[in-house]
Write a structure and sequence with these properties.
There is one protein chain. This protein has 300 residues and is mainly alpha-helical. Helices cover 76% and strands 4% of the residues. Helix 7 packs antiparallel against helix 8. It is elongated and about 90 Å long. The protein starts with a helix and ends with a strand.
């Protein structure tokens, strides 16, 4: 169930990235994928399924994946919170921390210092969750949905610490306690997926609004000049090909400037809206009606 949910979220974010070309989605997908690899390595499934003949690989592979998972979580955090823009000094410190983590685990692995590698991996994974929470708290007033981000990574941090404490014998052993890290990551994944979905909805609404404003006159909700000419070209070509006659009506409002000068622009706007309603109720549904200028209208 755990892997099924995480793989679904992974695929969902990859699809969103392919559609929207936003780095957040691919960073998050890789972050989820790294946890799946980490978990299968930690519980021994990866060793049994993929490389049972290489115990040395098992000794260091999981530890390196722990550091990699931490790094990917930090990279996602930097991207999601836009730390480089909001807190450039903090951004540089986190990059330094990432570099030190990668360098440390590589050195310990190459020299086969297993105990040191284990200490680095567990310490780095634990500290990285704290760093992610701290980044979220630092950006509460700067980034929308930062509070949800803090909730998500806090769940992961609490789960990780509970599992570590259970494994170390600091708290009584329970099934939930031993698997708390998995439950925490699952909750984190679901909350972060919700955050990204909301962000997607906001961006999509903004895109649709921008497209509408680019094509329509916001006052009268009629096609604007550019959109009318584009649609008119298609209609003319279509009617030429079919041999059907086409008519164009171009009109403007007499003395419209005098209305604005005498009664003010709000009244002028009401005149334009009323004229639009009158013409709309007169023409056919198939006719193309547009505001092609200040007080100028066209009907095709």
């Amino acid at each position: 169930i755990l892997y099924g949910i995480l793989l679904t979220l992974l695929g969902y974010n990859l699809i969103l990235h392919r559609s929207l070309k936003q780095a957040n989605f691919v960073f998050y997908a890789i972050y989820i994928g790294s946890f799946i690899v980490l978990n299968t390595g930690y519980n021994g499934y990866l060793f049994a399924w993929v490389h049972p003949s290489y115990p040395l690989l098992q000794n260091y592979f999981t530890l390196n994946i722990m550091v990699l998972h931490s790094v990917l979580g930090l990279v996602f955090s930097l991207s999601f919170l836009d730390v480089k823009h909001h807190r450039p000094k903090c951004f540089k410190l986190v990059l330094l921390y990432i570099g030190l983590g990668i360098l440390s685990i590589l050195v310990a692995t190459v020299l086969q210092w297993h105990l040191l590698a284990a200490l680095i991996a567990f310490s780095y994974l634990s500290l990285s969750t704290v760093v992610m929470v701290a980044l979220g708290l630092l950006h509460l007033s700067l980034v929308a949905k930062a509070q949800h981000f803090v909730l998500a990574v806090s769940a992961s941090m609490l789960g990780l610490f509970t599992t570590a404490a259970t494994s170390a014998g600091l708290i009584p052993f329970t099934y939930v306690g031993y698997h708390a890290a998995e439950f925490g990551v699952l909750l984190e994944a679901m909350v972060l997926a919700y955050i990204l979905s909301v962000a997607l909805k906001v961006k999509e609404s903004a895109r649709l609004k921008a497209e509408y404003l680019a094509a329509y006159d916001p006052l009268t909700n009629l096609l604007n000049r550019r959109s009318f000419f584009s649609l008119a070209s298609q209609k003319i070509a279509q009617h030429k090909a079919e041999g059907v006659p086409l008519s164009l009506v171009v009109m403007d409002l007499d003395h419209f400037k005098k209305v604005n000068d005498t009664y003010g622009h709000p009244v002028g706007d009401k005149v334009l809206v009323r004229v639009t309603e009158t013409v709309r109720n007169t023409i056919r549904g198939s006719d193309v009606f547009a505001r092609t200028g200040g007080e100028e209208f066209s009907i095709l």
